[in-house]
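Record Reverse transcriptase RNase H-like domain-containing protein, 292 aa.
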Amino acid sequence: MNYYARFVPHLQSRYAPFHELTKAGTPWTWNQRCRSLFEELKSCLTSSDTLVHYDDKLPLVLYSDACERGLGALCHRFASGMEKPIAFASRLLTDVEKRYAAIDREALAIMFGVSKFAQYLYGRCFILKTDHKPLEQIFGNNRELPKLATNRLMRWALILGNYEYSVEYVPACRNALANALSRLPIKEVDIPTVERQPSGQLLNLRINELPLSKRQLQCCLVQDSELAKVIRYLETGWPSRKKEISDNLRPFFERQSELSYEDHGKAELWCLLRYDRKFWKCYMKATQALWQ
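=>
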């Protein structure tokens, strides 16, 4: 059930009896109450009232709230005025964030929701609802930051400037969805990072898939007058000033730290790890030479 927690509102409060069963020293007793609750939770997951699909033709509403935790909830607003959620999100505050002033915590909840659902919100006009009245003025269309506002609020206001939205104040009694999530946060899980392959290794794999040999590619690189100059600069060093080289080589000069040239006595030569246009230029020349 924890896997689907973001799709079921108030899941933790409903799930409380199951947590009691897992406590140390508590006898395991699967009674009728637990069985009924389990069936209820399964029904919640299969109910159309829980979650709706994202639709770029419908207006978006982002609710946010914070108590000692931060949260965001993204909803659709249908033509009839009824709103249904696309997804829920919540997280615990760090020890430092718990010491924020109330206005900063509420602003943090907004930033959490915006960053969490950026893939839905960016490039769209949406409504941002908060139960903290001062934020309507600070983050609204006619935003006016107080002179004594913290640098944190100023930074967040600048970040929100990348989005198109309007701010609406909603009383706490009508912000129940966001309030509930702020009081039932989901602890973030550390996801192991995957080590990225070096770009040179990836390029080597890509070259091995080309319908020509590295020897043919090397010959075409050297025969190209523009690329031959680049290779010479890679071998002997670049001029200290950009104006000392021709205009057509200046893009390479600006990316000189991203270029690579290797020759280990096996006629293996490639360069231009990042300058894709030039790489494909030499690839096309090599292909033409191959079929001629």
